[in-house]
Amino acid sequence: MTPLPKRRHSTRRGGKRKASIRQKLTGLVPCKNCSSMIRPHRICPNCGFYNGKEILKPKTPKAKK
User: Fold this and answer.
1) Transmembrane residues, as ranges (predicted)?
2) Are 41 and 28 in contact, with CB atoms under 8 Å apart?
3) How many helices (H) and strands (E) does the chain have?
4) Which pLDDT tens digits describe the chain residue by residue (65 residues)?
5) How far, in Å, CA of 65 to CA of 52, rounded?
6) Domain-by-domain residue ranges, the chain?
């Protein structure tokens, strides 16, 4: 026979155990070029700059016909 728990763990006890197992929130930092909030160490999706250098050209909206 395999071992089984003698009593059921309460919701409160299980919740206290699982409280520390959660995904951490990522901090946002302002872009140095356009001041929009971006995730650190990523290229800014608005202006295309990273570390003061233009990496991607910003997308221009296409005119509808």
Assistant:
1) none
2) no
3) 1, 4
4) 889 989 999 999 999 999 888 888 879 999 999 999 999 999 999 999 998 888 888 777 766 66
5) 36
6) 25-58
C-alpha distances in Å from residue 41, one per residue of 20, 36, 45? 26, 14, 12
Nearest in space to 31 (alpha carbons), one of 54, 61, 65, 57: 54
In angstroms, rounded to a whole number, what is the distance separating the alpha carbons of residues 35 and 2?
60
Torsion angle defined by CA atoms of residues 14, 17, 21 and 24, in that order, rounded to the nearest 10 degrees: 110
